[in-house]
Prior knowledge:
The protein is mainly beta. The chain has a single domain, classed as YVTN repeat-like/Quinoprotein amine dehydrogenase (Methylamine Dehydrogenase, Chain H), CATH 2.130.10. 2% of the residues lie in helices and 48% in strands. The protein has one helix and 30 strands. The protein has one helix at 3-9, and strands spanning 13-16, 32-34, 49-54, 59-64, 69-75, 83-85, 91-96, 120-125, 130-135, 141-146, 152-157, 162-167, 172-178, 183-188, 195-199, 204-209, 214-220, 225-230, 236-241, 246-251, 256-262, 273-275, 281-285, 291-296, 301-307, 312-317, 323-328, 333-338, 343-349, 354-360. Strands 1, 26, 27, 28 and 29 form a five-stranded antiparallel sheet that branches. Strand 3 (49-54) and strand 4 form a beta hairpin. It is globular. The two termini are 30 Å apart.
Amino acid sequence: xxxxxxxxxxxxxxxxxxxxxxxxxxxxxxxxxxxxxxxxxxxxxxxxxxxxxxxxxxxxxxxxxxxxxxxxxxxxxxxxxxxxxxxxxxxxxxxxxxxxxxxxxxxxxxxxxxxxxxxxxxxxxxxxxxxxxxxxxxxxxxxxxxxxxxxxxxxxxxxxxxxxxxxxxxxxxxxxxxxxxxxxxxxxxxxxxxxxxxxxxxxxxxxxxxxxxxxxxxxxxxxxxxxxxxxxxxxxxxxxxxxxxxxxxxxxxxxxxxxxxxxxxxxxxxxxxxxxxxxxxxxxxxxxxxxxxxxxxxxxxxxxxxxxxxxxxxxxxxxxxxxxxxxxxxxxxxxxxxxxxxxxxxxxxxxxxxxxxxxxx
Length: 361
């Protein structure tokens, strides 16, 4: 993602879509605030949670998914953005970056130098509720994916136009692969054999073989591809295109675009993507379009749009498919929406510029 857009898009709000009955907007919920490692997890309510990265405040907001309230805020480091859950169900990986944030139209030559000591992937334990360590993963990590066996991380290094393959146990980079300019979205196929990396600058998806550390295919997309989502069977990939106002549907066996789902307005900017557990629908955040588009994967058509808040970006879905969580940064909050009813349930305050969200059962 270009830095000139970062402060706008990343200052997202989080929207929670839930099966509970509609509630009015809530004031900021009291939450335990602590530096990494200083929180007593035994004093927090147990059960499913939503973890949200806050880019500007450098911390993690933890929400109780039953009550839709913030229960903790934990310091992580500079610019936490992409966040993924490991296969063990208790380890979170968070992309941290020391690159300065730039607003729209800012000349990057006028910015302070990046703090490369802040770059890395934070390893967070959800049982202990603390940051265990930071793994070196190349410069300016933005998003990442985790291998199916949990042994490797695949990291987009935005400033270097590379993807790093990182061994989790040793914490070392085992391979650095050249991809297109401004790599953004990173996602592995459901079977774990390939990794897709989007290049915002080159308008391409790079298909990486993680075993060999080589690019096996490049697929041209609509302008400024951001995120990737796969159907559960891995047969198709969906790529959001911010400047193309579209979602490209890719054949993952032939590595080509099958069709393009065009949105009706230039204000609708596809950003984050979540796939329903049964693969029947996609949920796409629309940035300045203030909503979430619901797409039927059988017909590849938009069947509904839900207004959720200012510039929604990051998005997560509960394992039962009933609740969505979207990050809408300018309002620094989380909104809850019932997927079945297709309506907003509640909005809950997060930190400064919420960016990514993940559901932990």
